[in-house]
Amino acid sequence: MTQNPPIHVVGGGLAGSEAAWQIAQAGLPVVLHEMRPERPTDAHQTDGLAELVCSNSFRSDDFEQNAVGLLHEEMRRCGSIIMASADQHKLPAGGALAVDRDHFSAAVQAALEAHPLVSIERSEVAGLPPADWGSTIVATGPLTSPALSEAILALTDEAALAFFDAIAPIVTKESIDFDIAWFQSRYDKVGPGGDGADYINCPMDEDQYNAFLDAIDAGGKTEFKEWETNTPYFEGCLPIEVMASRGRETLRYGPMKPVGLTNPRTGAAAHAVVQLRQDNALGTLYNMVGFQTKLKYGEQERIFRAIPGLEKAEFARLGGLHRNTFINSPRLLDRQLRMKARPDLRFAGQVTGVEGYVESSAIGLIAGRLAVAERQGAEKAPPPVETALGALHSHITGGADARTFQPMNVNWGLFPDIEQRFKGRDKKRLKRKALSDRALAALAGWLG
Prior knowledge:
The chain is an alpha+beta fold. Helix content is 31%, strand content 16%. It is built from twelve helices and 17 strands. The strands form four sheets. The chain has a six-stranded mixed β-sheet with strand order 6-2-1-7-17-16. Strands 10-11-12-13-9-14 form a six-stranded antiparallel β-sheet. A three-stranded antiparallel β-sheet has the order 3-5-4. A hairpin with a 6-residue loop joins strand 12 (272-278) and strand 13 (285-288). Helix 2 (67-77) packs parallel to helix 10 and helix 3 packs across helix 4 (101-114). The longest helix is centred in the last third of the chain and has 21 residues, at 427-447. The chain is globular.
């Protein structure tokens, strides 16, 4: 009996790890190529598979009312290694699913290393994967190596598309002043692994808030290289100083909104609130929610220590900025996620123009399953567009306008409308529940 040749996956991030897992679980051999530690990146801190570079949050876990929560649930039902590891190492985060980043990465890596059909090769794939590999999934993420980026651009004859992504600082819990700060989730909401008091809140009055804005405006920023000057930001992950520049109230209606929070010392809401979310299982590290930044390191320490409760903050990691690259997927990929110019290459993850850990993993999941079906000689249809998986897939393979294509998180606007009409004060909630029910029924049909 002839053994199946392996399917190759290039990139050991969340999308690549998920794709490799789906292939191996279907009974086919897979080789997962990861260039770290042979070639490090500007943003990764370790050489672990599925490392979380920016936030440790997978966002809302409410599958009946939130599109990303629905994506979580669909991936769980597809046997996702990313979701299984996230659930295993979840942290208190109100209604969100947040994870201990180190334990999460270690769990994904351990599962892949232990799988008898997975081989992991630690070396850079410089340039396009060789044609004799056959079926290959490129899941190199937003930090694709220059050699591979240039080869992809040469193959597609496309101008590079890129945006900046920013990283939020992490603070040690013991350095936070709890004579000022307090624990509370917004509206006391209880989420996965939480108890309704999952965030640390640092209050500001109006004068403190205005002084904070002035300090951000005057603070020294990271300077761009010449080739970066025309690169835009992704709207879903703007640096705090960019948000502040859009108006004095922008942050109060964004990451610093005080609604749903009551200062137990005053019995009232603050003018603005800085929230910190648990970042590790020990509960010793907390990240500053929405505080991704391009401020220089010295400026970050000076300005953020002016926040009430953080006067003596010790930073386990300061914020940073890195350049993300993605391809024009609606123009370059077919419905099977294959490169039209070289159909042996599938693409998955953030390099396809989806934004977010879960979205990237989802495209890896789809790519892995499509590659398996193709190897088995029966081309599989992508997930139905009524599902969160299918809505996201459809967006990057033709649903978006190729002329204006930009990274996208999953959202209800990507789903086909539902014929049923709802009335009353709860009509939005009822409609979203109906969209979720329809999605999970469609997913069951696709899996079955």
